[in-house]
Specification:
Layout lengths: L17 E5 L4 H12 L3 E6 L2 H11 L3 E5 L5 H11 L2 E6 L15 H22 L3 E10 L12 H21 L3 E7 L12 H14 L8 H13 L7 E4 L7
Parallel strand pairs: 1-2, 1-4, 2-3, 4-5, 5-6, 6-7
Helix pairs in contact: 1-7, 3-4, 4-5
Length: 250
């Protein structure tokens, strides 16, 4: 019987791996960068805000490099990956603050912009980034629980999240053997909710967290562990891993 080396296609740990994080200057992306660097990876943080990129690099430390990148600009993304050259894992966590409205009062232009950043930028990054991913590497995308359990007023947020889940499965087929997966967080303390007042945001966290099975909303460190898992484990592809504190069950 033919013997197979079961370790040949596993990405293993992140020691000396190169991880590109688009949207890594804050929130979940920054938490992923810190955790990956802590496991020995060299991380490249790319985001549109120069000051936040510089601050993120200082926070992560010597294993981090920063690049200013507008992920809505196709040619900028193409040049970025040509400059970066080869790497092991691509993580996409870029996103803007949510604007939630019912359909009757929704600004459709803003809804289109949300798709530009959260869907088309992802597809563009996969197009230009995947040729530079080394053997055994992966792509980890970001969606959200709105796509699986939308609330009133979440029509476009739900649509974007559902589209990214479908894109994840399609890219896994298209780009094989590169593994493509996604993380689906529930409500997490990030800048995603920054358009709310401080008081309204904290009340939102208390209200939502109190309904969750774990009794709280998520922290970025909770969610970052799932990205690390998907980069390392080497066998899953086309999957969306839900990390929501039990949101789907209540």
């Amino acid at each position: 019987m033919e013997q197979h080396n079961t370790k040949c296609n596993r990405s293993g740990n992140l020691q000396n791996k190169r991880v590109i994080i688009l949207g890594g200057s804050s929130g979940i992306g920054l938490a992923v960068a810190e955790s990956a660097a802590g496991m020995g990876a060299d991380v490249v943080i790319a985001s549109s805000n120069p000051e936040r990129v510089q601050k993120a690099v200082r926070v992560v430390g010597d294993r981090a490099a920063g690049h200013v990148l507008d992920v809505s600009d196709e040619q900028a993304i193409k040049r970025f990956f040509e400059t970066i050259d080869h790497f092991d894992h691509l993580v996409f966590t870029a996103g803007d603050a949510l604007s939630l409205n019912e359909l009757a009062t929704a600004d459709l232009q803003k809804a289109r912009q949300a798709f530009e950043l959260r869907y088309w930028a992802v597809a563009t990054a996969a197009k230009y980034g995947s040729p530079h991913i080394r053997n055994g590497g992966s792509i980890v995308l970001t969606t959200g629980s709105a796509g699986r359990r939308p609330q009133k007023g979440w029509i476009f947020a739900a649509s974007v999240c559902g589209s990214v889940e479908a894109l994840t499965r399609a890219l896994a087929v298209e780009l094989a053997p590169i593994r493509v997966n996604a993380v689906c967080p529930g409500v997490v303390r990030t800048d995603l909710w920054q358009k709310m007042s401080d008081e309204a945001r904290e009340e939102f966290y208390r209200s939502v967290g109190g309904q969750m099975l774990v009794g709280r909303v998520g922290e970025v460190e909770d969610i970052a562990q799932t990205y690390l898992y998907l980069m390392q484990e080497g066998y899953s592809t086309g999957q969306t891993v839900v990390v929501d504190g039990g949101t789907m069950l209540v």
